[in-house]
Write a structure and sequence with these properties.
Helix content is 29%, strand content 27%. By secondary structure, it is an alpha+beta fold. The strands form 2 sheets. Strands 2-1-5-4-3-8-9 form a 7-stranded mixed β-sheet. A two-stranded antiparallel sheet has the order 6-7.
Length: 156
């Protein structure tokens, strides 16, 4: 399923790395950046999320909450978050339902792994509508953070 700009973002509830349930609907009235990433502790994923961590003041100034999502277990994500000092929630989509709903899943990834999150970025506005959607074919590519920030600037 492809997510269309202007469509209602699929709601979800996932556990974060602190074992709390987090729903997209918890952020109603706020802009949200959803970042799907393939796997904790890998080079490109670490680079991507560290970039977001290091620029969190900019996202805050744009009135955006950031949520990282992968199919890793919440225990793996807790260790990843601790080691890298991430300052935003990491959510476990272990059952692959949210990645699938957002069209952000590889059927087959490297080493014949099945059902790994595709690197993707979605901006959800205060009303719960998708204002930016980018699903990358190559896990080695990074989302277009300039376009994401421009989208968020237009929503602030």
């Amino acid at each position: 399923m492809n997510i269309e700009i202007g469509s209602k973002a699929p709601d979800f509830t996932l556990f974060d790395s602190d074992k709390n349930k987090v729903s997209l609907s918890d952020f109603a009235g706020q802009n949200v950046l959803l970042l799907f990433f393939p796997a904790a502790f890998t080079g490109v994923c670490t680079t991507e999320l560290c970039s977001v961590r290091d620029n969190m003041a900019q996202y805050a100034s744009l009135h955006a909450k950031v949520l990282g999502i992968s199919v890793d277990s919440l225990f793996t994500l807790a260790k990843f978050k601790e080691e890298q000092g991430y300052n935003f929630p990491l959510l476990s989509d272990f059952n692959k339902e949210v990645s699938t709903a957002y069209g952000s899943i590889y059927e087959t990834f490297v080493f014949d792994m099945k059902g790994v999150s595709r690197r993707s970025a979605f901006v959800v506005d205060k009303s719960g509508n998708v204002q930016y959607a980018e699903v990358l074919e190559s896990a080695g590519d990074l989302p277009n953070f300039e376009a994401i920030q421009a989208t968020l600037s237009g929503l602030a």
